[in-house]
Every structure is written in structure tokens, then in C-alpha cells.
Design goal:
By secondary structure, the protein is an alpha/beta fold. It has helices at residues 12-23, 40-48, 69-83, 95-107, 132-142, 159-167, 188-198, 204-214, 218-221, 230-239, 248-256, 260-270, 279-286, 292-303, 327-337, 346-349, 354-369, 372-379, 431-447; strands at 28-33, 54-57, 115-120, 150-156, 179-182, 277-278, 307-310, 321-324, 386-393, 402-410, 414-421, 453-460, 475-478. It starts with 11 loop residues before the first helix and ends in a 5-residue tail after the last strand.
């Protein structure tokens, strides 16, 4: 088993991390975390091919009687111990007892080999007043860390719990994590590799649209039927009778948060504001008090890769904005919840409609904002430090307002003013559009130090029509550059 057993799409770096940990001469403690459905369990399961000394998954607390949840968790843990070879013993009454039984089980395993202990959905085990964390801490610090043959892997979709209690722990587990593996959604390139491996034939144009719908989440992508077109798959997954992803938004948040409604209200609000909102605006518009509760909710949503915090160009760092980054949630809220579609072939019947074209434009902007590294590589500036943001300018009596899709403010004194256009064919710069570009350039230059120069940059699908306004852009990044 001391080699990569299977090349998993988009997870080569993570497999190499697991390989290194398994070969280590010391006991290792690794936390695997990321958005629900992103493939954490799949990564660990597929890499080790079931060769675990112990593998337990916590019981979801979201659909159970909370009065008996601690005992239910202990009972399930005990059953797993028995299944992996523990001699018949009474069910533990505390987590301290439960981990002592785990130690006894592992001591019966063959000596001289690394023992892989995998605890999935670890945050679910930490029920109210269970004293789970001190017991878990004692298991690692008091027993496993003193050996040289334990590879402890823990996963959790409740990413904020993982960060607070493990990764950023200030107590007994401070600095004990020996490796962190944060699984993010697939990039466009990883999506293409995934579909190729699955036998799904799809153009780069449709791979981008797939990302704009499914967000690069492997769990959703596995549902794509290779015998259907992308449009047919979207209808099947979202709009058909008993569609597999028809109620996924509610299920997703219900499985992550004990009180999901406020989290969903934040995401619903941010889905309506492309450039995001300040926390004060979020508080005012959702009715959630601007205090510790909202802070924790925003932190949890960021930790789970649903939203991000950023500073818009020209704004104070003390007044950050929050914007929705999860493409799946944005699509679901716009078309499945908001539209209340009854047409079972909605997508097929509206492929060229203004509603879908408008959505594609905004969704492609989100895609680009999630692929900054690829954009910088295409520009030839991967090694240059930069700050990226969007920028909205309010109009007044003298000047129209404007919005700049993406600004890349580089340390080499160049600023890329990026226009983002999802277009079925080559994009044409008209006289009127060229006038708008010049206006945006003038507004931006007023805000920049004199040492900075601006490169007008177009990010689009297939390139530019060659006409008299073609030179409005110094740089052009194509969709294929991002894949």
C-alpha cells in the first residue's frame, strides 16, 4: 500500500501528502476539511482502499433526538470497535472510556506497520456536554503521539468546528496537527479531467457552463449522464420530476448547521448582490443582529467555501465586503428556488433566452473570480504579488456610474482592468463599447498613483473580432487558457 494506488482526478497533491504521512517514521495527525460534497471521504477511502485499522463515521446530529445523541454516538462508536475486532466489552459511558477501548483495539493490531485510523465527520461526535474534545486530546497526546505507527486522519464538513477545535486550537491540541489538507472544489482543468475519465464528452464551452451550474463539486458531477447533452443533464438534475438536486440547497445547509435558516438567509441575500455586501448591510437586510452570532455565521460560511471576504478597490480595509462564491448555490437560488420552474424541460426550451444569457454573463464572472491563479498564469505574471477585487462606482450629475468586473493590482506597478464576457463566438468591440471602456479607464486612472499603468484586459470565450477597435485591449485571456 506504500504507493499511490489510484490517480484521482484533481487530487494528486493531496495523494502525495497522504503518501508522505504514511511513510513517515512518526505518528501523524492530519485534518482533511472542506465544503460538504467536495470529496473528503472519497479521497481517504480510495487512497487507502479500505485498509484501515479503524474507520468510524459520526452520526448526523441534524435528524435525531438530541436528548439521546451522546449515547447514540457512543453506541455507534462501540459497534465500530467490535466490527474491527475489539473483544466483547460493555458499551463505554464516556468518550474517555471509548478512546481507551480504541487504544486497546489498536494495540492488538500487527506491530511494525503504520495503522491508519480514520474518523469521519468528527465534529458530529462533539455533542453538547459530551466532553469529547478533552477525551480526543488525551487519545492523541497521551497515547498515539507517543508511538511511531499511528496515522490519524480526521474529516469534517463542519469546517468552522475543524478550524476552531483542531487547526487553530489554543489548548491541548495546539500545534498537534502535523498536516492539513483543505479540499477545494475542482478547477476547470480538473473538471475537464474528471469528465474525460468518466467518459463524458463535453466542449470547453460546456465544461465552463457545467462549472457555473455544479460549482466544480465532484459529488454533483458524478450525476452527469454521458449519454445526454449538458442541457439535458441540467433538466434531469434540477427540473425533472424527482430531480436529484431539486432540494439539494435545503439538504446541504440542513446537514451542516443546527439552525440552518439564518445561514440560508445570508446566502440568499448575497446571491442577489454580485459584488457582495458589508456585514452591516447583511445584518440590516437579514435581521440578524450584528454581533457575535453574525460573526460566527459568516466565519462558518467562509470556512465551508460558500462565501469570501474581500476589500473592494479603493475601500478601507476596515470595511470588508462578503460575496457568494459557491456557483451551485447561486444557480440553485436563481433558477430552482426563485423561478419556481414547472417546465420539466426548462433548460432545453430556454437555451437562447435573455434570462439564461444574463445568468451566463454573471456566472462566468464568478468563474473567473474563482480562477485568479489561472488568469495570472495566462497573463504571464504568476510570480507577481497582486490584490484582486471588483469595483463599483456610483454615478452623479457629471458622470455615469460604472462597474469593473475585476481589477488585478500588481506589485510590478501594472493594473489589469479586466472586462469579462461569456460569448458564443468572438467578441466584438463596438464604437459605443469602446467609449465605455475609455470612460472606465479614466475613472480608474484617477484613483491610481502615477507610478501605476493600466492594461485593458479582456477575459472571454473565443477571442476578439478583428476591427478598428480591436486594440482597445492590450491583453486577451481565452476560456481555453483557464482549462
Amino acid at each position: 500500500m506504500c504507493k499511490i494506488l489510484k490517480v484521482m482526478t484533481g487530487r494528486i497533491k493531496e495523494q502525495k501528502q497522504l503518501e508522505k504521512l504514511f511513510r513517515s517514521n512518526d505518528s501523524e495527525f492530519v485534518a482533511v476539511y472542506g465544503r460538504r460534497r467536495v470529496g473528503k471521504t472519497y479521497l481517504v477511502k480510495e487512497y487507502f482502499k479500505g485498509e484501515f485499522a479503524f474507520w468510524h463515521t459520526g452520526l448526523s446530529p441534524y435528524d435525531r433526538d438530541r436528548k439521546n445523541l451522546l449515547q447514540d454516538q457512543l453506541n455507534a462508536f462501540h459497534h465500530t470497535l467490535l466490527r474491527y475486532g475489539l473483544k466483547e466489552t460493555p458499551c463505554p459511558k464516556t468518550w474517555m472510556d471509548a478512546f481507551f477501548l480504541l487504544e486497546q483495539l489498536l494495540e492488538t493490531k500487527k506491530q511494525g506497520e503504520k495503522k491508519v485510523v480514520f474518523i469521519d465527520e468528527l465534529p458530529w461526535l462533539d455533542t453538547a456536554r459530551s466532553r469529547f474534545v478533552p477525551a480526543f486530546e488525551n487519545f492523541w497526546n497521551g497515547w498515539a503521539a507517543k508511538r511511531d505507527d499511528i496515522l490519524l486522519i480526521v474529516c469534517g464538513s463542519a469546517t468552522s468546528w475543524m478550524e476552531d477545535n483542531l487547526i487553530n486550537n489554543k489548548g491541548g491540541l495546539y500545534g498537534r496537527i502535523t498536516e492539513k489538507i483543505h479540499l477545494s472544489p475542482f478547477t476547470l482543468a480538473e473538471c475537464r479531467s474528471f469528465y474525460d475519465e468518466a467518459g463524458v464528452k463535453m466542449s470547453i464551452y460546456d465544461i465552463a457552463q457545467s462549472y457555473m451550474v455544479l460549482g466544480g463539486i465532484p459529488y454533483y458531477m458524478k450525476m452527469v449522464d454521458p449519454e445526454l447533452s449538458l442541457a439535458q443533464n441540467i433538466d434531469k438534475l434540477f427540473f425533472a420530476k424527482d430531480a436529484k438536486l431539486g432540494d439539494e440547497f435545503d439538504l446541504l445547509f440542513g446537514s451542516l448547521f443546527i439552525n440552518p435558516e439564518q445561514y440560508k438567509s445570508i446566502v440568499r441575500l448575497l446571491a442577489t448582490r454580485h459584488s457582495g455586501l458589508t456585514r452591516e448591510s447583511i445584518s440590516k437586510k437579514t435581521g440578524i443582529e450584528d454581533g457575535g452570532g453574525l460573526t460566527q455565521q459568516l466565519k462558518a460560511l467562509m470556512a465551508s467555501d460558500f462565501i469570501m471576504k474581500y476589500i473592494p478597490f479603493g475601500e478601507s480595509a476596515k470595511r470588508p465586503y462578503y460575496r457568494l462564491t459557491d456557483s451551485f448555490c447561486r444557480f440553485w437560488l436563481y433558477f430552482v428556488e426563485k423561478k419556481e420552474v414547472t417546465d420539466r424541460n426548462f433548460w432545453m426550451n430556454n437555451l437562447k433566452s435573455p434570462a439564461l444569457n444574463g445568468w451566463r454573463g454573471h456566472a462566468f464572472e464568478e468563474l473567473c473570480l474563482n480562477h485568479i491563479d489561472e488568469i495570472k498564469k495566462a497573463l504571464g505574471v504568476s510570480g507577481v504579488n497582486s490584490e484582486e477585487s471588483q469595483w463599483s462606482v456610483q454615478g452623479d450629475d457629471d458622470r455615469e456610474g460604472t462597474q469593473i468586473d475585476l481589477i488585478i493590482d500588481r506589485a510590478d506597478n501594472v493594473v489589469n482592468l479586466c472586462e469579462i464576457k461569456f460569448y458564443n463566438g468572438e467578441f466584438k468591440v463596438t464604437k459605443e463599447y469602446n467609449k465605455k471602456l475609455n470612460s472606465r479607464l479614466a475613472i480608474l486612472q484617477e484613483k491610481l498613483p502615477k507610478r501605476k499603468i493600466v492594461h485593458m484586459t479582456l477575459i472571454t470565450t473565443e477571442g476578439l473580432v478583428s476591427n478598428e477597435y480591436r486594440d482597445a485591449f492590450q491583453k486577451v485571456v481565452l476560456l481555453e487558457d483557464l482549462v
